[in-house]
Amino acid sequence: MTPEERDEITASVAAQQELGPDYDNAVAEGLVERIGAEIDKRVDARVSAANTQAPLAPAARHARGAGFAMLLISLIFGTGATSVVIGSDQTDSAAQAIMVILIWAAIAAINIVYALRR
User: Fold this and answer.
1) DSSP secondary-structure letter at 2?
2) Closest Cα to residue 71, out of 118, 111, 112, 113?
3) Among 113, 114, 103, CA closest to 33
């Protein structure tokens, strides 16, 4: 995750804290969209790199590798986003818990959609 992306997530958490509970859903939806876009970007980059570096492999092997890459990227991104939310100076632990749940729910949804498309 780049420093700019980390700053964006931190800014979203700070905005949520300043705006109050009336804007929780809007801030969370924006964060989930950015997380989903980042995961898509990373998966596309990994799949593209794998396609250009590796010789043609059987379809089953490619599908297994792509699924593993998606899993690995999801875990790395989810762990990083969770650490940013928990490491912020936010005093409301309930809001932190909601943000972490939303992050992992978005990651789970993206992985389910990815698995169903295959």
Assistant:
1) -
2) 111
3) 103
> CA 1 to CA 36: how far, in whole Å?
13
How far apart CA 1 and CA 16 sit, in angstroms, is 21
Question: Alpha-carbon distance 17 to 89, whole Å?
Answer: 10
Verdict on whether the full-model pTM lies above 0.90? no
The residues spanned by each domain of the chain are 3-117
Cα separation, 90 vs 88, in Å, equals: 5
| Residue 23, amino acid | Y
Residue 1: which pLDDT band, with cuts at 50, 70 and 90?
low
Q: Which amino acid, one-letter code, is at 117?
A: R
Dist CA 106 CA 23 (whole Å):
18
Render pLDDT for 34-90 as a digit per residue (tens, 0 to 9): 788 888 888 888 888 877 765 545 555 555 667 778 878 888 888 888 888 887 776
Q: Which residue has the higher pLDDT, 29 or 106?
A: 106
3 state DSSP class of 45: helix
